[in-house]
Design a protein that fits this description.
28% helix; Tetrahydropterin Synthase, Chain A
Amino acid sequence: MTPPVMAAPPASPVPAASTRSHGQGRPCVITRRACFSASHRYWLPELSAEANQSRFGSCTIAPGHGHNYELIVAMGGGLDADGMVLNLSEVKHAIREQVTGQLDFLCLNEVWPEFDLSRPEGMLPTTEALVHAIWKRLAPQLPLMGLRLYETDTLWADVIGDAMEAFLTIRTHFAAAHRLARPELSQQENDAIYGKCARPHGHGHNYLLDVTVRGPIDARTGMVCDLAVLQGLVDDLVVEPFDHTFLNKDVEHFATTVPTAENIALHIADLLSAPIAATGASLHKVRLQESPNNAAEVFAEVPQLGMKPLALEALAAG
């Protein structure tokens, strides 16, 4: 499925003498954060207890479990005569009326009809299904560019349109050492290129890894892909082989490829792309943070580089 291409606000023109006061008409993207607590349970009535347990694990345990959800709402448009895209009081009211006021401290399975599993069209209240349902309620009220819903700090979903499609991100970490040096160069030459990072005995990092996949939301499970399978792939193909290693010596690929953050991210994308495709989703992006100051991002879906990153960037910054 080709994701919807949403038009970002036009590039801001250079101010001219005739520019209206207070920036009226100039484009901008704003974000608003909202939080709510809710519970949910994964249980499909058409499956046996054994089948539910096999597929959804501890998420099947009655009466369910809860999360402190964090919602980021990105909106775009031209500034009005008061210098605002929207009056934030009105934004806050719309989010409370349409979302948080309806969901806070309640069970998601019992609140909205989308999650009524006694209906054939009902689906499980997963993170990606929930953020899509929120989009449907807020879109008539606000000029949405994107939504991000954090279930935890290691799991979140983004939507950038009303299609039944979402981006799902999982976060994990590993610790590894590396040395930045090209084997065909002398130590002096490597020192000139990589500085302290070329020292012979290497140095280490606690890497933070975000893996984002994209796909259609299943009409019954509410999932872009099986989350446990996705987490298992990342653990088996990346975390276990990389964790507590000296990348240059312990990971074959880096015996001949300098393990910069960029090359590590690219290699992770190469390792995950085909296995994730087998789950029915597509690997969208790998983000590897080496330190608080350094990170590398690799977009696996090359045709989407010209899509609409502004909404996702606004959500990430929100």
